[in-house]
Amino acid sequence: MLDAxxxxxxxxxxxxxxxxxxxxxxxxxxxxxxxxxxxxxPQTQCGQCDFPGCRPYAEAIASGEAEIxxxxxxxxxxxxxxxxxxxxxxxxxxxxxxxxxxxxxxxxDEKVCxxxxxxxxxxxxxxxxxxxxVMTQVIVSECTGCDLCLPxxxxxxxxxxxxxxxINTFVPNVLELANV
Amino acid sequence: xxxxxxxxxxxxxxxxxAKEIDLIRIPLPDRVVLPMQQRIGDQAKPCVSVGDHVxxxxxxxxxxxxxxxxxxxxxSGTVVxxxxxxxxxxxxxxxxxxxxxxxxEDEWMDNSVACTENYDFCTPDTIYNKIRLSGxxxxxxxxxxxxxxxxxxEGCHTLIVNATECExxxxxxxxxxxxxxxxxxxxxxxxLHICGAEKAIIAIEDDKKESIExxxxxxxxxxxxxxxxxxxxxxxxxxxxxxxxxxxxxPSGGYASDVGVLxxxxxxxxxxxxxxxxxxxxxxxxxxxxGSAIKEPKNLQVRLGASYDYVLSFADIExxxxxxxxxxxxxxxxxxxxxxxISKNTNCxxxxxxxxxxxxxxxxxxxxxxxxxxxxxxxQQLYWYSKSSNIEKALDYNxxxxxxxxxxxxxxxxxxxxxxxxxxxxxxxxQQTKEKEQTDNARERFEFREFRLERNKQExxxxxxxxxxxxxxKMAKDKAQKIAIAAAQERVNAAKxxxxxxxxx
Lengths: 180, 505
Description:
The complex is a heterodimer of chains A (180) and B (505). By secondary structure, chain A is mainly α.
């Protein structure tokens, strides 16, 4: 009787120590759920969700402060993916936050640009190259098409241009195939 | 010795055999349209302007990286347009093209400086650069830049010359070998000289008896062997050819260069000969014109950029509405109309009488596609996953190893266009991979910007703090100084008054 009690007590103590150590040694930094949500969000950083970027929005969803249907660039597919991840009923995209648009990039009209640098400060992903009183242009591969540079431009020299598929990026339509 | 065959594949007769396989040189076209976008890599950048006079063989577009090849003027004349034109591609999208109107002279660039017949005295590097600057790409249809392929294959042990003909119906390789057997052999010798391989194997399908005989007659080099391999479709696919000739399997996702083999199409070798020995860049190719609406199939030597209409005017075409298909019956692309031009990888044009395409039915899981797949994939599984856009699963089933040969679609009793689904899945995978890269990049840049702004704010706060402290210290110091001055003044004043009172006394 005493043997069993003492063995079990020692065992419990030892395992408790191991678990306690593991809890400190392998502590998960931050909230993994936020990372998972952030991975689904399109990283446009446009702020249409009323949060200053995708990660803040992910944090808000994780803490239950925001709905999952506030991200127009992610589209309905994004909302569905979030619903699946969080195991909740899916919602339709909230039209108040804007509509889903095809992928676009900003292009500066170089003749009009005055080099005010306001767009450089507004860009959430540092996609502008320029400096005070010199012409500014966009690094095409970095632009997420968030539109945040449009309202700050004092001379309206930025255009959002839709990215058209080229021969290298063309994707055939599978629904058309199914109807053959 | 193996019997040079492989698992799967299809034995297909040439549907429209020609009585005689001649190579016909057609007259110069009046205008050529040269696409800047080639099958692989980035778009070449035009280095001429509208109105410029160009000579045959002059470079009209240059390249930035080695994934594409420069473009040369295929006729002499005037550049009349640099604009977007519809490409011979399943998407029907436009891409940048340079249009040259002929002056009828066919005046060549100065091509007197070359390695000539004495290429043995040129270093491999010289010859490699010659190939690179001559805009040569794989002439079998894949259009991969030859210089890049040669570079990858550095230190290879075997050179395989693919003279198998891509698909039944196409005869351009056969015609080329019969017209220029010596050029083929010399081309192999040039390539052996630069790639350092010990031996070369010219693989020809055994239904091309004349070509085999001719090449054997002209080949005096003991490092080159000519092998007749069974006529079976997809024997010309690089990976399968390497496997059936040498018994070496190229690992999934790898290239022939990974197993020390360089594989080149016979047309490419003739282009290499022209470039290295005669100093003529790639400006023409052989195109087979065949199909059910053609009375006698022909092989034409055509300047690149000639329009389909012009090329087809040399064939006897039956009147009426016909369907146009670029490249072979298995892997080709159906095109709308004939408003296209011959590009470096146009090996064949099919002109077919319109037939009602049988509509696709549901998959009955018969498994015929599995038995014919020459790369031993599971086409049926790939079909399900591609159809449901389940790219992850399709990749698990080695979607990317599919060579899109079309054997599965050909045998499918339900007429499912299987390869179209795989092409869709591959394109979707490419798109998703690129998007993933972009979102990861954007996330990283956003997070770094947040970090930078925060850091700037902190640095600024620290700076302000430091300034404030310095100012306070300074003020304190000032105060101390003032006190010291005041004390000194007082002392002086005290001394003065003391002196004055002493004086007064």
